[in-house]
């Protein structure tokens, strides 16, 4: 971070130069993860001249740390808020970096400044800006095919991030859904002030379309994408129904063959027995009926034995 060595009067030009310094530094803000410690860097080279000095770290107008040092670099007095601290040998080494215990979930950029206090005079030594952020979890994406019609519902959920992200949907990796309905809700968790975000998409699309949910957290330089692959989902279902189809077809074929064989067998039986009866009647009508009992027996026996051969 830049070290401002120029002595500026607190009541006149200080605020202006403070603001301009931070506008220039906006891009180089320190990124603090919400709930974790962070160090706001400030190095003075050379270290402040060995003298009785009082330094103050301020967040905007509020003093967060005040410390008095003697000529030999010993700390004589000091206090801080929310566990803010600087190294014990800060004045000797020139490393005046401010340690913060936990980063607060602040939506706005926070500006911190280090000042040397001498009576009414404040000398600005460092300015640092801090951005609070936290990573979102990889979004969970659920796809629900409609029971009727073409409308498909999607649900996208991600948790534990900061600040509030922007959420959008992509179809086939490029176009945003047109004519669909999107509703997105970001809920701030009561304890951590982190966000859970849930987005619903209802859209009429073909089943083979890929649908992606994108969560963007520019502060974290984070873009998370989850995709529901339409084609893949369909082939899984397709394979299952294909297996069922093959099974039922095979079953039908087997049953059909059995029926045909049974019918053919029956037809053949009928034909053979008819022929035998006819032959028998012809035979009986041609022959004189002298010894009918034995002939009849043998004739009726024969077709039966033949039938079982078929
Ligand atoms: C520093 O402070 C001590 C006591 O607070 C005082 O005795 C000493 O003269 C001061 N030194 C300077 C250079 O102001
Ligand atoms: C300054 O001190 C802090 C710890 O107090 C340390 O994390 C940081 O690396 C130091 N910076 C330099 C430039 O030595
Ligand atoms: C404050 O700064 C002014 C101008 O730089 C100087 O004349 C004055 O002596 C300083 N006051 C103290 C208490 O250091
Ligand atoms: C936030 O999301 C997480 C993970 O899905 C869940 O366990 C938690 O209950 C959610 N909290 C709220 C307040 O919705
Ligand atoms: C969907 O995603 C799969 C896997 O990345 C890809 O092979 C396919 O071409 C995509 N389909 C479309 C329509 O973009
Ligand atoms: C989808 O199409 C159905 C009719 O097929 C219509 O009732 C419904 O409103 C459409 N939904 C969207 C989100 O366009
Ligand atoms: C997405 O790709 C699939 C497969 O190529 C296609 O059937 C579908 O119409 C596409 N959807 C859109 C909205 O472009
Ligand atoms: C942001 O992420 C992209 C890709 O992950 C990387 O190329 C880029 O350097 C990152 N930018 C910052 C400022 O971290």
Description:
The chain has 310 residues and is an alpha+beta fold. It has three domains: 28-133, Immunoglobulins (Immunoglobulin-like), CATH 2.60.40.10; 140-231, Sandwich (Immunoglobulin-like), CATH 2.60.40.10; 233-279. The chain is built from four helices and 15 strands. The strands form four sheets. It has a six-stranded mixed sheet with strand order 1-8-7-3-4-5, with helices on one face. A four-stranded antiparallel sheet has the order 9-10-13-12, with no helix packed on it. A three-stranded antiparallel sheet has the order 11-14-15, with no helix packed on it. Strand 7 (110-118) and strand 8 form a beta hairpin. Helix 3 packs antiparallel against helix 4. The protein is rod-shaped, with a radius of gyration of 45 Å. Residues 172-173, 210, 229, 231 line the site of one 2-acetamido-2-deoxy-beta-D-glucopyranose (NAG).
List keywords for this structure.
alpha+beta, binds 2-acetamido-2-deoxy-beta-D-glucopyranose, 3 domains, 310 residues, disordered N terminus, Immunoglobulin-like, rod-shaped, 4 helices, four-stranded antiparallel beta sheet, disordered C terminus
């Amino acid at each position: 971070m830049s070290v401002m060595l120029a002595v500026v009067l607190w009541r006149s030009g200080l605020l202006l130069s403070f603001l301009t310094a931070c506008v220039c530094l906006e891009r180089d803000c320190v990124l603090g993860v919400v709930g974790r410690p962070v160090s706001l860097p400030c190095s003075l080279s050379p270290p402040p001249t060995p003298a009785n000095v009082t330094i103050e770290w301020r967040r905007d107008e509020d003093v967060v740390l005040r410390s008095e040092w003697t000529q030999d670099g010993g700390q004589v007095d000091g206090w801080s808020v929310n566990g803010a601290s600087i190294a014990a040998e800060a004045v000797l080494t020139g490393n005046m970096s401010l340690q913060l215990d936990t980063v607060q979930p602040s939506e706005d950029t926070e500006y911190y400044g280090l000042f040397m206090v001498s009576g009414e005079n404040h000398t600005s030594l460092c300015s640092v800006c801090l951005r609070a952020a936290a990573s979102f979890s990889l979004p969970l994406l659920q796809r629900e095919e409609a029971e009727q019609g073409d409308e498909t519902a999607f649900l996208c959920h991600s948790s534990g991030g900061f600040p509030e992200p922007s959420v959008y949907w992509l179809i086939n990796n490029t176009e945003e859904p047109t004519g669909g309905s999107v509703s997105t809700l970001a809920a701030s968790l009561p304890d951590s002030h982190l966000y859970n975000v849930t987005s619903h998409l209802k859209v009429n699309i073909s089943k083979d379309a890929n649908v992606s949910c994108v969560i963007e957290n520019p502060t974290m330089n984070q873009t998370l994408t989850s995709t529901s692959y339409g084609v893949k989902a369909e082939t899984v279902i397709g394979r299952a129904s294909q297996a069922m189809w093959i099974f039922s077809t095979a079953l039908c074929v087997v049953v059909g063959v059995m029926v045909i064989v049974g019918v053919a067998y029956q037809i053949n039986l009928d034909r053979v027995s008819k022929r035998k009866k006819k032959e028998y009647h012809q035979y009986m009508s041609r022959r004189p009926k002298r010894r009918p009992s034995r002939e009849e027996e043998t004739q009726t026996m024969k077709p039966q034995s033949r039938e079982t051969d078929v």
